[in-house]
């Protein structure tokens, strides 16, 4: 009898305040003027977050490291 491996993510997802997420890099104000950033900002305003941020929980701290979605993270912060 074989056992399936444990998933490395929670398929249900989480809803977290942005204050609990620590980005691994910052984006410059000049990057916010790029078409890519403005497109994501417009998409968030229009349809909401389609592709969730990918985070990893920091054990014992209540904080999460942002692994994927830096531009979306900063766009969400800009939108409040």
Write the layout of secondary structure elements.
Elements: E1 21-22, H1 35-47, E2 54-58, E3 63-68, H2 70-79
Please characterize this protein's 3D structure.
By secondary structure, this protein is an alpha+beta fold. Helix content is 29%, strand content 16%. The chain is built from 2 helices and 3 strands. It has helices spanning 35-47, 70-79; strands spanning 21-22, 54-58, 63-68. The protein has a 3-stranded mixed sheet, with no helix packed on it. Strand 2 and strand 3 (63-68) form a beta hairpin. Helix 1 packs across helix 2. The longest helix has 13 residues, at 35-47. It starts with 20 loop residues before the first strand and ends with a helix. The mean pLDDT is 92.
Q: What descriptors fit this protein?
A:
2 helices; alpha+beta; globular; 80 residues; three-stranded mixed β-sheet
Question: What is the alpha-carbon Rg in Å?
Answer: 15 Å
Task: Report the strand count.
Answer: 3
As residue ranges, the low-confidence spans are none
Strand order within the widest sheet? 1-3-2
How many H/I helical runs?
Answer: 2
Broad shape:
globular
Helix-strand sequence: EHEEH
The secondary structure category is: alpha+beta
**Largest sheet, strands/sense/barrel:** 3 strands, mixed
Arithmetic mean pLDDT: 92
Distance between the termini: 50 Å
Helix content bin: 25-40%
Could you tell me the strand content as a percent range?
15-25%
